[in-house]
Structure formats: structure tokens, C-alpha cells
Specification:
single chain
Length: 98
């Protein structure tokens, strides 16, 4: 799943705050708060669904990339080089430059 549950709560809080601030001519608290809380809960679940869809899309792409580019290791090319051999390589490079 992409993101965390915290993003759901942030979206719900943002929805609650925006709707509460735009309902400026406050008539009565319960009349305003009940629909706003319902919208906040709805936005929480919509965000959860959006995260699930985004996770599905990104996970599908990652699987395609893994299938298209298989990891192969050729043991004939891997060579462990010690510190003395590195020193010799560096000396050769310095001698070539000068």
C-alpha cells in the first residue's frame, strides 16, 4: 500500500477544516458538524481506496520491470581485487598521466 494511514487522517482533517471554515454563517453547531464529520469520514475512505489503486498500479509496473530485466550474474567477470592490486593499478594510472 502506498503511503500510510496518517495520510488518510490528514486528508480527513483537511476536509473537515475546509468545510468547517466555508460554513461561516454558523447557525447551530449540530446542523453544521454532523454533515462535516460525515464528509470527513467519507474522504478518509476515499483516500484509502485511492492509496489501494495507486499501490496496485505501481506494484504492477514493478513486476513488469522485474520480468523484463532479469538479474544474471556472470562469475567469469567477477574478480576480487586486493589492496596491493589496487595500489598497482593506481600507480600505473599515475605513471600513464605523467
Amino acid at each position: 500500500m502506498v503511503g500510510t494511514m496518517m495520510s488518510n487522517f490528514w486528508i480527513a482533517l483537511l476536509t473537515f477544516s475546509i468545510l468547517f471554515l466555508f460554513s461561516y454563517p454558523f447557525i447551530e453547531g449540530a446542523i453544521i458538524l454532523i454533515p462535516i464529520i460525515l464528509w470527513a469520514i467519507l474522504s478518509f475512505f476515499i483516500t484509502f481506496g485511492g492509496r489501494a489503486i495507486l499501490s496496485y498500479v505501481l506494484d504492477d509496473r514493478m513486476k513488469k520491470i522485474e520480468v523484463e530485466v532479469p538479474f544474471t550474474q556472470d562469475n567469469s567477470q567477477t574478480k576480487v581485487v586486493g589492496s596491493k592490486e589496487y595500489a598497482e593499478i593506481i600507480k600505473d594510472m599515475i605513471n600513464e598521466e605523467s
